[in-house]
């Protein structure tokens, strides 16, 4: 038996392949192979012992792990970063609203790994060395030792070596059925985007390897279908598959992690006040409007089994509770702990907990210090001071950590988030449409299930990104789709982070520079009278913000004999300046950005002004400061109208925000030149303000807005209207003088702008 068992351990991958492909039972096949080994004792290499890949993996997964320990010089700070500008100004549609605890989430993830183990891993070659051996030398370094943890940085580095590298290699091999243990995924401490690194930056990332993005050889090692999957993920900027946020061993104590789980239920997101004193950031307002941060987000996965099960289960649970309340009229029953706390605190005023001691005694300790004896008070105060000195588990800290983790997920549009404190970990799943965070119980890294759950988690992150990427690909093939609100979220200022150089968002998917296609767009704008337009809900506060809108033309151009619908759709994007929004123009195959803008008028008064501006733009659209206009869009069943124009740049403050201050400085005299050119036509602007000028990167200045001018009337003119005689030349002279005064005033204002 011993000889047979030893020979079983030396079976190579081809033996498992034959067993897998045959219709016979496994035991019968193993017996035949044992007999073959006895007849041919030298059929396998004997230079070193070989263990089947599946057994190697099982041994690795079940091998015990030493817990992390703090070094003698470790920081004992448990402070966590408080919310800042990006967090406090996060768009309401992106804020966390609810936390749900999924107790069996680790087991669900481990099932993914167990499915991989249910086969013999026949795709691996006989000589494939296990990644645990490959990383063994690195594991002996000082950084990887469990007792070397000084702070978050050393914890992140140690986790990278002990877990990140080997587990990403294992997951890649299992998911893509690679012939050897090597990565398509990689664990890294740095994101793909390197800009905007001063906010919402996680400590670890699971990404598609850089080699895959840059090297065709690595890419060709996968099947065509797998290549297409990876390409779709990269294209839509989903290659940050999972994010890690680390807390040092003191900040992430068991009490703090338990406090994080205790956040379950409705979540209150911290926001900035109107004065900006809370964020203290110069970007608090944009054009006198409260700034909104975030990024354009994708969809939730639809066909990832575990996610579907979790989401549906929680939805059914919530629906059942609601049904019970509606049927019985009774409030939702509390658990035993909640009932105990309610009973014990009845009739007492409880002090707000500030330390762990307060938190533990809050349900029984009254606030009056007179009820506590001197000795008890002295002992309690001494213990509180000690725990305060050690910075243990502030009650508000879990809430701060949740804000930090969720903001990072929003910034990188990630679904899988991990909160790791060395020896304890909480796995989180972000759901976009309901703004919900599904979290696991506190998991110890020494748990037998930990490695299996991690492998399942990384595989889940890949399946999720693939599903979401293909949803966007499907939408691209639909002519004029009505996109869900969640994806077309518009933000102010520009969404963070910038799109990766190898990726493009849906709206920018086919952005082209072909002059022929652009000319086709212009032809449509000049001839068609109906366009499909998407208006942001923040502007058009009705359920139907998408539909056919009519173009009203005042130019006298010939109109088609019958209403004609353009095959180009227009979508309002971000606001450029006062009531002016950039537009994305798309048809079935192409799209353009930075080509068109729309100026909106929401009231009848603004519409009257808009009609005046339309006529003024028509008059000057061929001048150096002019902008071509196409017509006024009329929104059905609404007082809203929009003047459609060509794109002409940004206001100066936006260029400065884009770090193009030098462009503004070099060309600021063009503000004055634009007003001079307008005055050369004996016309006034009416309201010279900086937000009414737009400047391109090349320095060209255009006038985006005009205001109707009404000159004052004298008493003699009023009398003249009543029939009293007055000389016409006197009136002309007076009007000329007033024009001159107005022009001089506008020149001074423009000169001040050019010197600013």
TrEMBL record:
Entries under InterPro entries matching the protein: Kinase-like_dom_sf
Annotated stretches, region: Disordered: 1-53, 359-391
Domain of life: Eukaryota
Residue spans of biased composition, Polar residues class: 1-25, 362-371
Descriptive protein name: Protein kinase domain-containing protein
């Amino acid at each position: 038996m011993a000889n047979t068992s030893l020979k079983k351990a030396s079976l190579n991958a081809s033996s498992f392949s034959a067993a897998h492909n045959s219709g016979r039972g496994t035991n019968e096949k193993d017996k035949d192979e044992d007999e073959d080994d006895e007849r041919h004792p030298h059929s396998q290499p004997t230079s070193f012992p070989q263990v089947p890949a599946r057994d190697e993996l099982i041994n690795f997964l079940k091998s015990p792990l030493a817990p992390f320990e703090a070094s003698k010089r470790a920081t004992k700070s448990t402070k966590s970063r408080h919310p800042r500008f990006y967090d406090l100004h996060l768009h309401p549609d992106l804020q966390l609203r609810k936390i749900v605890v999924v107790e069996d989430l680790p087991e669900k993830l481990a099932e993914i790994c167990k499915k991989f183990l249910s086969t013999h891993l026949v795709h691996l070659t006989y000589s494939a060395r296990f990644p645990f051996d490959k990383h063994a030398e690195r594991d002996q370094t000082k950084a990887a030792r469990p007792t070397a943890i000084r702070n978050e940085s050393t914890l992140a580095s140690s986790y990278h070596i002990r877990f990140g590298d080997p587990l990403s290699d294992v997951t890649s091999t299992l998911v893509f059925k690679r012939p050897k243990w090597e990565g398509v995924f990689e664990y890294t401490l740095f994101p793909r985007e390197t800009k905007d690194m001063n906010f919402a930056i996680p400590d670890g990332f699971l990404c598609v390897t850089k080699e895959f993005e840059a090297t065709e050889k690595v890419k060709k090692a996968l099947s065509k279908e797998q290549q297409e999957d990876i390409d779709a993920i990269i294209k839509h900027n989903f290659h940050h598959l999972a994010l890690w946020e680390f807390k040092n061993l003191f900040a992430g104590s068991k009490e703090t992690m338990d406090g994080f789980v205790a956040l379950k239920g409705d979540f209150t997101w911290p926001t900035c006040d109107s004065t900006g004193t809370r964020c203290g950031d110069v970007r608090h307002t944009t054009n006198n409007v409260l700034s909104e941060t975030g990024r354009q987000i994708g969809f939730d996965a639809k066909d990832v089994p575990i996610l579907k099960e979790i989401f549906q289960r929680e939805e059914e649970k919530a629906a059942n509770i609601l049904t019970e309340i509606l049927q019985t009229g009774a409030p939702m029953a509390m658990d035993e702990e909640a009932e105990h706390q309610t009973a014990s605190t009845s009739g007492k005023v409880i002090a707000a907990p500030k330390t762990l001691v307060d938190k533990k005694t809050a349900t029984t300790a009254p606030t009056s210090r007179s009820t506590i004896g001197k000795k008890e008070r002295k002992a309690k105060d001494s213990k509180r001071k000690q725990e305060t000195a050690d910075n243990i588990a502030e009650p508000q800290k879990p809430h701060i950590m949740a804000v930090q983790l969720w903001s990072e997920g929003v910034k990188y549009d990630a679904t899988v988030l991990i909160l790791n404190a060395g020896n304890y970990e909480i796995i989180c799943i972000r759901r976009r449409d309901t703004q919900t965070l599904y979290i696991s119980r506190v998991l110890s890294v020494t748990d037998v299930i930990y490695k299996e759950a991690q492998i399942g988690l990384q595989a889940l992150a890949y399946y999720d990104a693939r599903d979401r990427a293909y949803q966007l690909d499907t939408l691209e093939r639909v002519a004029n789709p009505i996109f869900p609100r969640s994806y077309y979220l518009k933000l102010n200022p520009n969404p963070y982070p910038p799109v990766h150089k190898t990726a493009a968002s849906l709206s920018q998917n086919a952005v082209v520079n072909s002059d022929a296609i652009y000319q086709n767009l212009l032809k449509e704008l000049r001839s068609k009278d109906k366009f499909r337009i998407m208006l942001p809900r923040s502007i058009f506060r009705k359920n139907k913000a998408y539909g056919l809108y009519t173009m009203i033309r005042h130019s006298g151009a010939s109109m088609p004999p019958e209403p004609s619908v353009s095959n180009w759709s227009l979508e309002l994007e971000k606001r450029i300046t006062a009531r002016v929004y950039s537009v994305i123009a798309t048809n079935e195959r192409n799209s353009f950005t930075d080509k068109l803008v729309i100026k909106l008028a929401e009231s009848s008064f603004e519409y009257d002004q808009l009609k005046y501006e339309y006529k003024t733009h028509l008059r000057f659209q061929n001048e150096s400061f002019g902008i071509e206009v196409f017509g006024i869009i009329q929104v059905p069943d609404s007082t809203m109208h929009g003047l459609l124009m060509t794109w002409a740049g940004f206001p100066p403050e936006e260029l400065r925000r884009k770090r193009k201050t030098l462009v503004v400085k070099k060309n600021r005299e063009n503000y004055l030149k634009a007003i001079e050119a307008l005055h050369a036509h004996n016309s006034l602007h009416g309201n010279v303000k900086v937000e009414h000028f737009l400047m391109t990167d090349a320095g060209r200045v255009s006038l985006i807005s005009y205001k109707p001018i009404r000159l004052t009337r004298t008493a003699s003119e009023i009398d003249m209207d009543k029939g009293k005689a007055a000389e016409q030349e006197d009136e002309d002279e007076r009007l000329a003088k007033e024009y001159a005064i107005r022009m001089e005033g506008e020149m001074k204002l423009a000169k001040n702008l050019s010197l600013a």
